[in-house]
Design brief:
Structural class: alpha+beta
Protein name: Hydantoinase/oxoprolinase family protein
Number of strands: 37
Organism: Nonomuraea roseola
Pfam family, one: Hydant_A_N
Shape: globular
Largest sheet: 9 strands, mixed
Oligomer: single chain
Number of helices: 17
Distance between the termini: 47 Å
């Protein structure tokens, strides 16, 4: 049996796959923010109770420990060592002003990740090719190390100028720190991100140093309780053993969302939808990604909170629009929803655990759109507490409770739509060309409104949507990424071959330590037209490097540049192409679980097993609506709204005028008023929305 455990802000999700029969078992348990390992072990306990005697052959974990530390700005006792004369690199940054501040005089820079008094410099200088200009100052390095030791600063990031070309000075600094300050946890930029651009490389290294002590404690605690090896999900769409991930914890910062996007991609591709938008709705946030031809989009321009991180990661946009998002009144008297969340503890009002704010979940409970319990009755919900909270908020706004509750959900839906537009429209994609795969405990709740607002062709809700991220953990390969900056307009193919060989050697060695005997290496390169500030990444062919290889990479660059920006300079000698970064991804492939087909209905037609009063529109008011159990649906069944479809970990409110059809793999395909098949949207349809 292989097990995936995804720790979210509200629930910890578990999926177990029987490798002999293909049977998939899912369960959930409340998360434990004070010690996430407690929720992890509780989830495993449920699997053990249900599958007693099964042998665990693989365990993969998606964790938010590093992510939450960054999002909550819990960064203390962090030090920074850089090249003499560059102590203000964090203050200067990119000199860019965020959107919304047209005049920089009105923008106050947020605090640096390391305050200036904890930034120390060391003499020594390399040029951009890695040649030594001034020798490393060993005596000054020792004084710096002792300064950090005397003040109890144990997490230290080191980033020297041009160390991407030659790591020698950084490695000497590490040896000095080991000698003078042995308690220190050190991150070197040449280990974390061997790529140019000093500010991003510095911050990425410091983020790694900041989360390293927390992740090491968490991994050690979990390993001691598990007493078995396990792997951790990485932001790039791969996994790595826990023993290795403690050396590069920054790679886990989008662990859970990355697993969700990959799980949804496999589910959608199996159902015949290779290109989709994925939406993971949880208790705290909503994570959105785009999948094209079965592969989620990747980026190295991501950020976690306010910290840019140039590590390879799945391109995900996150907004504070989850089930626990709090509804509040602004100083101007308008209704707002999120980004602050009630989380798992104390949670929404209806949890009955002391929460004092109305949340999105409370609005759903009040309107009857979700049942009076979660997880099949394991967590009862206090509908009266939700009602009283909504009524009190409505009185302050001067609205009816129904109008207030539907308004909360409408704002939450538009917050999710804005995230979808960021990941599609801002990247030159037409949202109407992509069906949406929505999952997570709260993901399906607003599916019908998203269809109406965005003009989506369809929304696909997988079986057990609350466990898709945990399922995704079992679908991913072991993957490591390596990069080297090499800026040139006239590349020497022998030099390029040497760099690729070195990177591939590192990748193969790491995968062999993980037990893979036949790892796969994939090359890519970042190129740009000379004079441009940023690059375009393209895949590079395998095999020996010759003129045909070079021409193929250039052709791919021109094609990708034209796709992204609408123009290219294929045959214009005035615009030379500059090579910037060479990359290698080392992949250890695994066997993915098969998604079984569902049988069709052999017995009588589908009928609802009950009903309850539900309000879908405050103008139409309350009415008794049929309630279907997801487990009763068979291939070909169609449920017409208004209705509610319930299952163990999630609920789908099906609004009037919408239908949900069960496909051959058990997915519910939701379509609205005259919606066309996915991929056939029209301008008229978009205008009618």
């Amino acid at each position: 049996m292989r097990i995936g455990v995804d720790t979210g802000g509200t629930f910890t999700d578990v999926v177990a796959v029987d490798e002999r029969t293909g049977e998939i078992f899912t369960t959930k348990t409340p998360s434990t923010p004070a010690n996430p390992a407690d929720g992890f072990m509780a989830g495993l306990g449920k699997v053990g109770a249900a599958k007693a005697g099964a042998e665990v052959t693989g365990l993969v974990h998606g964790t938010t420990v590093a992510t939450n530390q960054l999002l909550e700005d819990r960064i203390e006792d962090l030090g920074f060592v850089t090249t003499e004369g560059f102590e203000f690199i964090l203050e200067i940054a990119r000199q860019s002003v965020p959107d919304g501040y047209g005049n920089s005089y009105f923008w106050v820079k947020p605090p640096r990740i390391v305050p200036v008094h904890r930034v120390k410099t060391v003499g020594g200088r390399l040029d951009h090719l890695g040649a030594e200009v001034r020798p490393f100052d060993e005596e000054e390095a020792a004084r710096v190390a002792r300064w950090f030791r005397e003040r109890g600063i144990t997490a230290i990031g080191v980033c020297f100028l041009h160390s991407y070309a030659n790591p020698e000075h950084e490695e000497r600094m590490r040896r000095v720190l080991e000698r003078e300050h042995p308690e220190a946890v050190v991150s070197l930029s040449s280990d974390v991100l061997r790529e140019y651009r000093e500010y991003e490389r510095s911050v990425t290294t410091l983020v790694d140093a900041a989360v390293k002590p927390t992740m090491r404690r968490y991994i050690a605690n979990l390993s001691e309780r598990l007493r078995m090896p396990y792997s951790v999900m990485k932001s790039n769409g791969g996994i790595l053993s826990a023993a290795e991930v403690v050396h590069q914890p920054i790679t886990t910062v989008l662990s859970g969302p990355a697993a969700g996007a990959l799980g949804a991609a496999l589910i959608a591709s199996t159902a015949g939808h290779p290109s989709v938008i994925t939406l993971d709705g949880g208790g705290t946030s909503t994570d959105v990604a785009v999948v094209v031809d079965g592969e989620p989009s990747l980026t190295t321009e991501g950020s976690i909170g306010r910290y840019p991180c140039k590590i390879p990661m799945i391109d995900i946009v996150t907004v504070g629009a989850g089930g626990g998002s709090i509804a509040w009144i602004s100083p101007e008297g308008t209704l707002k929803v999120g980004p602050r969340s009630a989380g798992a503890d104390p949670g929404p009002l209806c949890y009955g655990k002391g929460g004092g704010d109305v949340t999105v979940t409370d609005a759903h409970v009040f309107l009857g759109r979700i049942p009076p319990h979660l997880l099949g009755g394991e967590i009862p919900l206090d509908r009266q507490a939700a009602r009283e909270g909504v009524e009190a908020l409505a009185a302050k706004l001067g609205l009816t409770p129904e109008r207030t509750a539907t308004g909360i959900l409408e704002i939450s839906a538009f917050n999710q739509c804005n995230a979808i537009r960021q990941i599609t429209v801002k990247r030159g994609l037409d949202v109407r060309d992509f069906p949406l795969v929505t999952f997570g405990g709260s993901g399906p709740l607003l599916a019908c409104r998203l269809i109406d607002i965005l003009g989506l062709p369809a929304v696909i809700v997988p079986p057990d949507p609350g466990n898709v991220s945990a399922f995704g953990l079992l679908t991913v390969d072991v993957k490591n990424d390596y990069v080297r900056t090499h800026v040139t307009k006239n590349p020497d193919l022998g030099v390029l071959a040497g760099i690729f060989a070195e990177l591939e050697g590192q990748a193969v060695a790491a995968l062999e330590r993980e037990g893979f005997t036949s790892p796969v290496c994939r090359r890519s390169a970042d190129l740009r037209y000379y004079g441009q500030a940023y690059e375009v990444r393209v895949a590079a062919p395998p095999g020996p490097l010759g003129e045909e290889w070079r021409a193929e990479v250039l052709a791919r660059f021109h094609e990708e540049h034209e796709r992204l920006y609408g123009y290219a300079y294929r045959d214009d000698p005035r615009h030379a192409v500059e090579w910037v970064n060479l990359r290698v991804s080392g992949i250890g492939p695994i066997t993915r679980p098969a998604i079984p087909e569902r049988p069709g209905r052999a017995e009588a037609a589908l009928t609802a097993q009950g009903g309850r009063p539900v309000c879908f529109d405050e103008r139409e008011g309350w009415a008794e609506r049929p309630v279907h159990q997801r487990a009763d649906l068979r291939w070909g069944d169609v449920v017409s709204g208004p209705a509610v479809i319930e299952e163990y970990g999630s609920t789908l409110p099906l609004h009037p005028g919408f239908t949900a059809e069960c496909d051959s793999h058990g997915n519910l395909v939701i379509r609205g008023h005259g919606a066309s098949e996915p991929g056939t949207s029209t301008t008229e349809k978009g205008q009618s929305r």
